Amino acid sequence: TLTTNQMSAVRLVAIGRWPDTLRNFKVDGTTYDPSDGKIHDWPTLNMDDNLQMIAKIAALCNDASIAHSEHQYVATGMPTEAALKVLVEKMGLPGGYTPSLDSSDLLRCCQWWNNDAKRVGTLEFDRTRKSMGVIVKKAETGKNLLLVKGAVENLLERSAYIQLLDGSVVLLDEGAKALVLSTLREMSGSALRCLGFAYKEDLADFATYDGEEHPAHKYLLDPAYYSSIESNLIFCGFVGLRDPPREEVHKAIEDCRAAGIRVMVITGDNKETAEAICREIGVFGPSENISSKSFAGKEFMALPDKKKLLRQTGGLLFSRAEPKHKQEIVRLLKEDGEVVAMTGDGVNDAPALKLADIGIAMGITGTEVAKEASDMVLADDNFSTIVSAVGEGRSIYNNMKAFIRYMISSNIGEVPSIFLTSAFGIPEGLIPVQLLWVNLVTDGPPATALGFNPPDKDIMKKPPRRSDDSLITPWILFRYMVIGLYVGIATVGIFIIWYTHGSFLGIDLASDGHTLVSYSQLSNWGQCPSWEGFNVSSFTAGARTFNFDENPCDYFQGGKIKATTLSLSVLVSIEMFNSLNALSEDGSLLSMPPWVNPWLLLAMSVSFGLHFLILYVPFLTQIFGIVPLSFNEWLLVVAVAFPVVLIDEVLKFVGRCLTARARKQLGKRKEE
Asked: Does 288 share its domain with 436?
């Protein structure tokens, strides 16, 4: 996930004339194309016995293949083994031999080695001994040979001899072993993955092995015997392979760090190699002290207080890790209340994938067992895709909250708009059919469009929420109540303003000729029949004229049609403006303007269009009990509705301050 998974050999180390001398060959090329690059200072016509044995092991102890497809070379099997086959092709064949195969065969040299010795048995790779072996029968002599490749340190532990340049075999002394390990550390520190090569000629029970019918075959069925079979080996060299980090991984790890996600690398690689790669991709800083952050798997499992180490901030590395180590690390993190996502591709990764909160299997290199045990399959095997998925998940969660925030704050506002009319004793401002229209029609399009909100700009800079966090926090509920209260006040307030004010905020409201009353009269409108000398002049609304000569008190019932229309228009307008507030939970409209979600602007247009439809189509105005509004009256509607945006901007600013303060306090606690 962190690297391209396209290996290439960059350095070949062979044994010299003496046990304490090594030969280094630089290898060019970064693809699976055998003709991509060459080996520098290579003895093309005089390949010595030591180099021939390395080529033989790399070719025969190998299950990969390479094909040319659509202008590129594609590997099938393990990338490390594919890189070894490419290396064999670059090494060529021993002097005097030319392959008698079709020149179109990509792996001509590998095929030549396969013809030279036939595989008759396989010792499959396992993570305990960290090696793979094959038993081959030489075509010329019929003699069996064991060829082994694997982790250099492990092969050295099981090797008793070393092959020199001329093919002679001598005892592997401590000096030669120290020289190999020193070179290994230097190559691992350059982020190279190293594979060693060894062989064995004296095979005891397997000297005549020729298949499943042989008596020794029972030992091949039990991996516990493999280490004893692969003992007293003859070490002959090793190769450094490079798996370059993906270009986008460094940025993805930075995003993880900013988002409060800790990245822990658990790998089977050599410790020095893993540390070099982790520094290269940004898990560790270039000069960061990682003595307490990098452990071998067995070393970590032997520590007394493992949970304390896992609580450290920043990245962690576990190298030479076995499957049981991965499972134990996941278990410890979950016990500590962490939400754990685990990636893996092998059969042995399945238990840890199953145990993790989110098991992520590799779609390209992953085994079917790993995919079945996981919760999610990564189609491109790319770590940055996981980070993108986290951002997308946060965005979906935020959009769900935006929908809820919009619907609750809008509907809460309708409650005080009804309650306040009763509390103030004024006529009802909204009738049931109008409330149904707002809830079922005008609210729907903006609420739906909020599901298309783009992610907040700082979505990957916020700390992760806990799995048990409530959807509506006390602060969010307080915001709902404040916005809802304003919706109620504005809806009822404009009703009162029309009855009691000839102008408001410099906007003339008396041009329709309606009669102004005092607030006392409006709140006691039920006593109107007892008022002496109360008269009301007629007023116009659109093409209609309302006259109250016969019953002036009907001014508070039949005459409230204009005030009701203003209340309904304010309620619709506030809810449209409130949908803009729902674009982001804490982000200002200055940083996340309305046009970032064109679907919301379209939905607002649809809702306003529907409202204009019932306002200006005559038969619909009668159904909904409303009248057309003039330009001045629309100015008043906007003036009363727009402050909902300003109020929520202030609340968002307070929310951002509270979040920053909480984050700062959390950082201090972690430092302590």
From this structure: no
Q: Which two tokens stand for residue 273?
A: 């190699």
Distance between first and last Cα of the chain: 33
**Domain CATH for 337:** 3.40.50.1000
Across-strand partners of 162? 170, 235
Same domain, 259 and 336: yes
Q: In 10 A of CB 278, how many CB atoms?
A: 27
Q: What is the pTM of this model?
A: 0.66
What is the domain-level CATH number for residue 517?
Answer: 1.20.1110.10
Of 173, 208, 242, the residue that ends a domain is: 242
Q: Which residues of 297-318 are buried (b: 16+ CB within 10 A; e: fewer)?
A: beebbeeeeeeeebeeeebbbb
> Who contacts 472 (Cβ-Cβ below 8 Å, separation ≥6)?
404, 408, 480
Give the domain extent around 496. 410-460+480-665
Tell whether 484 and 604 lie within a shared domain: yes
Q: How many CB atoms lie within 10 A of CB 490?
A: 25
In sequence order, which residues have a C-beta less than 8 Å from that of residue 106 and are 6 or more positions away?
A: 34, 66, 67, 68, 73, 89
Q: Does any domain span residue 403?
A: no
* Cα dihedral: 385, 390, 393, 399 (round 10): -110
245-280 pLDDT, tens digit each? 877 888 888 888 888 888 999 988 888 888 888 988
Q: Is residue 3 part of a domain?
A: no
What are 278's two structure tokens? 């982790």
Same domain, 88 and 185: yes
State pLDDT tens for residues 21-59.
999 999 998 888 888 889 999 988 889 999 999 999 999
211 in the same domain as 264 = no
Total domains present in the chain: 3
173 near 19, Cβ under 8 Å?
yes
Question: Among 587, 360, 322, 277, which Cα is nearest to 461's?
Answer: 587
Q: What is the pLDDT of residues 373-383, one digit of tens each?
A: 999 998 888 88
Compute the distance between CA of residue 146 and CA of residue 144 in angstroms, rounded to an integer. Answer: 7
Closest to 44 (Cα-Cα) out of 29, 61, 25, 57: 25
Do 376 and 426 lie in one domain? The reply is no
